[in-house]
């Protein structure tokens, strides 16, 4: 019985940590950290699969296509509750090419058009010790 109690307590602490990681203040701090390393807007990028992603607020998210290749996406509003999404899908209308104005971030019943794509210099971000962005996979 003691083992079951310990497991339940551990699971509850993981849920509590998860809730803290999604606060608006944490999202704002993560967005500021990512924007510091984001380059100029581009029209699109190649994505064979999504390595991981991180919500950065109601209209922004970071998407990793490889372990060291990431992009900051801005979606058109309204995109209701993007910051609460637990899973997303990024569309690719042109065979593994994600393009602003052509592709979307989908989650739940939402279909949010991508309006801006900025590459993130993740290698420099990592080297500078700023890679502490919590991610979803």
Q: Could you walk me through the main structural features you see in this protein, from its secondary elements to its overall organization?
A:
The chain is of the alpha+beta class. The strands form 2 sheets. The protein has a 6-stranded antiparallel beta sheet. The longest helix has 20 residues. The protein has 3 helices and 8 strands. The chain is globular and about 35 Å long.
Helix/strand layout:
Elements: H1 2-21, H2 24-35, E1 44-46, E2 52-55, E3 60-66, E4 69-75, E5 89-90, E6 97-99, E7 104-107, E8 110-120, H3 122-127
Antiparallel strand pairs: 1-6, 2-3, 3-4, 4-8, 5-7, 7-8
What's the short version?
With 137 residues, the chain is an alpha+beta fold.
What percent of the residues sit in helical stretches (DSSP H or I)? 25-40%
Q: Rough shape?
A: globular
- Largest sheet, strands/sense/barrel: 6 strands, antiparallel
Radius of gyration: 16 Å
Q: Total strand count, please?
A: 8
Strand-pairing-aware structural class: alpha+beta
Uncertain ranges: 1-21
Defining key terms:
137 residues; globular; six-stranded antiparallel beta sheet; two-stranded antiparallel sheet
């Amino acid at each position: 019985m003691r083992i079951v109690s310990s497991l339940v307590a551990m699971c509850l602490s993981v849920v509590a940590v998860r809730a803290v990681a999604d606060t608006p203040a944490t999202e704002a701090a993560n967005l500021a950290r990512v924007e510091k390393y984001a380059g100029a807007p581009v029209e699109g990028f190649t994505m064979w699969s999504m390595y991981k992603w991180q919500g950065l607020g109601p209209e922004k998210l970071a998407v990793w296509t490889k372990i060291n290749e990431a992009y900051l996406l801005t979606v058109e509003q309204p995109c209701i509750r993007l910051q609460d999404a637990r899973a997303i899908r990024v569309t690719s209308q042109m065979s593994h090419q994600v393009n602003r104005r052509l592709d979307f971030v989908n989650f739940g019943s939402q279909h949010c058009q991508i309006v801006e794509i900025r590459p993130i210099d993740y290698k420099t971000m990592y080297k500078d010790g700023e890679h502490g962005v919590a991610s979803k996979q």
